From TrEMBL:
Record flagged with keyword Glycoprotein: no
Entry's Gene Ontology BP terms: glutamyl-tRNA aminoacylation
NCBIfam families the record matches: gltX_bact
InterPro entries: aa-tRNA-synth_I_cd-bd (IPR045462), aa-tRNA-synth_I_codon-bd_sub2 (IPR020751), aa-tRNA-synth_I_CS (IPR001412), aa_tRNA-synth_I_cd-bd_sf (IPR008925), Glu-tRNA-ligase_bac/mito (IPR004527), Glu/Gln-tRNA-synth (IPR000924), Glu/Gln-tRNA-synth_Ib_cat-dom (IPR020058), GluQ/Sye (IPR049940)
Primary location class: cytoplasm
One GO cellular component, as annotated: cytosol
Keyword Nucleotide-binding in record: yes
Species of the source: Pelagibacterium lentulum
Keywords on record: Aminoacyl-tRNA synthetase, ATP-binding, Cytoplasm, Ligase, Nucleotide-binding, Protein biosynthesis
Function: Catalyzes the attachment of glutamate to tRNA(Glu) in a two-step reaction: glutamate is first activated by ATP to form Glu-AMP and then transferred to the acceptor end of tRNA(Glu).
Short sequence motif named 'HIGH' region, residue ranges: 11-21
Protein name per the record: Glutamate--tRNA ligase
Enzyme class: ligase
Entry's Gene Ontology molecular function annotations: ATP binding; glutamate-tRNA ligase activity; tRNA binding; zinc ion binding
Length: 475
C-alpha cells in the first residue's frame, strides 16, 4: 500500500500571511485534499527577534478565512530545537559533520579572498579534517555538515524538471550554531522528516535550499520528499510583487471587500491552469489539480481580473451571507454609520441586496450602494448627483411630489406608471426624470432601480427626501 500524501505549509511569523504564502498554502491544501492526504501547518518561528504571536494569529486567521484548514495542531519549529540539536550531534558522532572553530574575522577574510579571486564567497573547509586538539580555548564551535566535494546533487522537481547542482559549488554549511540553535536549513529537514512530509510544495526561491537540504537527507539516510518549486508571483509590470502591486496580507483583501472563494479561485489560476477554465468551484479545483499542470513561468497579479472574478462570486452569493459579510466588514473597518445602518435596517438591506449584487464587484461597493437605505436627511450629494439637480431636475421633482402623495398603492409598478405618465405628459424622456429622482433619493448617480429604491425605503422617507430637494425650487 502506498504511503499517504502529507504536505505542509511552513510560514515564518514575522508578518501577515502575504498573498504568495496564501497561494503556497492553497496548493499544498488542494493537493493533499485531492489525494485524501493531510496538510500540516508548521510555524517556522526560530527567528525569535522577528517572530510574534500577533503574526502567528494573523497567519492562522488568514488561512481560516480562506477556508484552508490544516490537520492536527500547528507545530512550532522553535519548540523542537532540542530535537534539531540531537540530530546534529548524531551526524557529528557518525563523522558526517564536524566542529568548526573559525572566528568571525577568519570568515570575513575567507569571503573577501574569494571575492578578490572572482569566486562566490564560501567556507573553505579548513576545520573539516583538523583534530579537535587544535581547537582554540574559549571558542564555542559551530557544527558544519560534510557536503560532498565532487559529483552532482540532483533535484527531481515536479515543476522545474531535473535541476542539477555541482557539489563543488556547495560548501560545508552550518547546521548548528555556536549557541546550540539549529539553522533554518537543518531544522526544516528534521521537521519534514519527523512530520512524515511526503511532498514539499513551495516557492522557487527555495530551489537552491533544496540542494543543501538533500545533502542533509542523504547524510542521514532519509528519503527525500517529492519536491515542487512553484514560480513566484510578479506584479502586472513583470517586476517582483511589491506592496504597490498587491503584496499585502490576506486580511487586507478581506478588508478591501473580496470574498474568500473568489481569492481562492484567483490564486489557483496564478500558476496553475485547467484548460481555459477561469471560474471553478473549490470542489472542481480539488478534482482537477495536479503538480504537472503548474506553470514554470512567473504569474502576474492583476487586480482587474480579481475584481471581475469577485464580481461573479458576489452575484452568485446568497443575500443573507452577503449581508453578514457587509456587517462584519463595516465593523472591522470602523465604519460605524454603515455598521449601525445595516444592523438597524436588516430587513430592508436584505431586500435590497439582490438589487445591489449585479452592480458591485466588492463588498465595499455593496456597502456604498446600500447607504441609500439608512443615510440621514438631508442627503449629502455626490458632485455628479448634485449636477443632475439643476433647475430642470428640481422642477420635475417638485411636480411629481403631489402625484406620489396621491398614490394609494406604493409599489414598483404603480410608481413606474406614475413617472412614465408624467414624462409623457411633460414631453420629456424618462431618463430626464428618473435621473434627478435617483440623485435626490440616493445622493448618487448609481443605485438599484429607482422605483425599487422608493419601495425599499418606503413612501414617507421617499417623500421626505424629495421634498428636501423640491424646497430648493421655492427658495
Amino acid at each position: 500500500m502506498s504511503q499517504p500524501v502529507v504536505t505542509r505549509f511552513a510560514p515564518s511569523p514575522t508578518g501577515y500571511l502575504h498573498i504568495g504564502g496564501a497561494r503556497t498554502a492553497l496548493f499544498n491544501w488542494v493537493y493533499a485534499r485531492k489525494l485524501g492526504g493531510k496538510m500540516l501547518l508548521r510555524i517556522e518561528d526560530t527567528d525569535r527577534e522577528r517572530s510574534t504571536e500577533a503574526a502567528v494569529s494573523a497567519i492562522l486567521d488568514g488561512m481560516s478565512w480562506l477556508g484552508l484548514d490544516w490537520d492536527g495542531e500547528p507545530i512550532s519549529q522553535f519548540e523542537r530545537a532540542d530535537r534539531h540539536a540531537e540530530i546534529a550531534m548524531q551526524l557529528l558522532a557518525q563523522g558526517k559533520a564536524y566542529k568548526c572553530y573559525c572566528s568571525p574575522e577568519e570568515l570575513t577574510e575567507m569571503r573577501e579572498a574569494a571575492r578578490a579571486a572572482g569566486k562566490p564567497p564560501r567556507y573553505d573547509g579548513r576545520w573539516r579534517d583538523r583534530d579537535e586538539s587544535e581547537a582554540p580555548e574559549g571558542v564555542k564551535p559551530v557544527i558544519r555538515i560534510k557536503a560532498p566535494q565532487s559529483g552532482e546533487i540532483v533535484v527531481e522537481d515536479q515543476v522545474q524538471g531535473r535541476v542539477v547542482f555541482k557539489a563543488q559549488n556547495l560548501d560545508d554549511f552550518i547546521i548548528l550554531r555556536s549557541d546550540g540553535t539549529p539553522t533554518y536549513m537543518h531544522a526544516v529537514v528534521v521537521d519534514d522528516h519527523d512530520m512524515g512530509v511526503t511532498h514539499i510544495i513551495r516557492g522557487d526561491d527555495h530551489l537552491t535550499n533544496a540542494a543543501r537540504q538533500i545533502v542533509i537527507y542523504q547524510a542521514l539516510g532519509w528519503d527525500v520528499p517529492v519536491m515542487a518549486h512553484i514560480p513566484l508571483i510578479h506584479g502586472p509590470d513583470g517586476a517582483k510583487l511589491s506592496k504597490r502591486h498587491g503584496a499585502m496580507g490576506v486580511e487586507a483583501y478581506r478588508q478591501m471587500g473580496y470574498l474568500p472563494e473568489a481569492l481562492r479561485n484567483y490564486l489557483a489560476r496564478l500558476g496553475w491552469a485547467h484548460g481555459d477554465d477561469e471560474i471553478f468551484s473549490t470542489a472542481q479545483m480539488v478534482e482537477w489539480f495536479s503538480l504537472e499542470a503548474l506553470n514554470k513561468g512567473a504569474s502576474r497579479f492583476d487586480f482587474v481580473k480579481l475584481g471581475n472574478l469577485n464580481g461573479h462570486y458576489i452575484r452568485e452569493a446568497e443575500p443573507v451571507r452577503l449581508y453578514e459579510v457587509m456587517v462584519d466588514t463595516a465593523s472591522e473597518l470602523g465604519r460605524n454609520a454603515d455598521y449601525l445602518g445595516l444592523v438597524n435596517n436588516k430587513t430592508t438591506a436584505l431586500a435590497a441586496i439582490p438589487e445591489l449584487q449585479p452592480r458591485a464587484k466588492t463588498v465595499l461597493e455593496l456597502i456604498d450602494l446600500a447607504q441609500f437605505i439608512y443615510t440621514e436627511r438631508p442627503l449629502a450629494l455626490e458632485e455628479k448627483a448634485a449636477a443632475l439637480l439643476g433647475e430642470e431636475g428640481l422642477a420635475h421633482i417638485a411636480a411629481l411630489v403631489p402625484q406620489f402623495e396621491a398614490l394609494q398603492d406604493w409599489s414598483v409598478s404603480s410608481i413606474d406608471a406614475c413617472v412614465r405618465a408624467y414624462a409623457e405628459t411633460s414631453d420629456v424622456k424618462l431618463g430626464k426624470v428618473a435621473q434627478p429622482l435617483r440623485a435626490a433619493l440616493t445622493g448618487r448617480t448609481v443605485s438599484p432601480g429607482i422605483f425599487e429604491v422608493m419601495v425599499l425605503i418606503g413612501k414617507s422617507e421617499s417623500l421626505g427626501r424629495l421634498k428636501d430637494q423640491a424646497a430648493k425650487v421655492a427658495a
